[in-house]
């Protein structure tokens, strides 16, 4: 039952990521991992040699649940959508440039 709900969460994350409503960041703690937060919960999607993991943490950092899936599935799609998002650093620099344009 929990796995089904987590896969539903994955489907919704994919749709919202593609719509530009969820921002993923590169994890500072793990390679090939992206993180986002929503409503005080943290989610991460990672690729570990072709096995994809979606992990959900509560506001205290406790694991609420996790699911894994091999290539060519929903979690791969979520990972790729997160990977293809413009990087947070790029947005920060764009914002700074826009601010500088206002004072120029």
Describe, in plain words, how this protein is organized in 3D:
The protein has about 100 residues and is of the alpha+beta class. The protein contains 3 helices and 5 strands. The chain has helices spanning about 1-20, 75-85, 90-104; strands at about 25, 35-40, 40-50, 50-55, 65-70. The protein has a 5-stranded antiparallel sheet, with helices on one face. Helix 1 (about 1-20) packs parallel to helix 2 (about 75-85). The model has no long low-confidence stretch (mean pLDDT about 90).
Draw up the topology in text.
Blueprint: H1 2-18, E1 25-26, E2 33-38, E3 41-48, E4 51-57, E5 63-70, H2 74-84, H3 88-103
Helix pairs in contact: 1-2
How is this structure best summarized?
The protein has three helices and five strands, in the order αβββββαα. The chain is of the alpha+beta class and 104 residues long.
């Amino acid at each position: 039952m929990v796995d089904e709900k987590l896969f539903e969460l994955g489907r919704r994350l994919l749709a919202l990521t593609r719509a530009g409503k969820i921002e993923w960041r590169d994890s500072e703690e793990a390679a090939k991992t992206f993180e986002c937060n929503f409503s005080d919960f943290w989610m991460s999607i990672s690729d570990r040699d072709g096995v994809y993991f979606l992990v959900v943490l509560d506001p205290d950092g406790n694991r609420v649940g996790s699911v894994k899936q091999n290539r060519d599935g929903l979690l791969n799609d979520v990972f790729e959508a997160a990977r293809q998002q413009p990087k947070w650093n790029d947005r920060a620099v764009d914002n700074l440039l826009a601010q500088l344009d206002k004072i120029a």
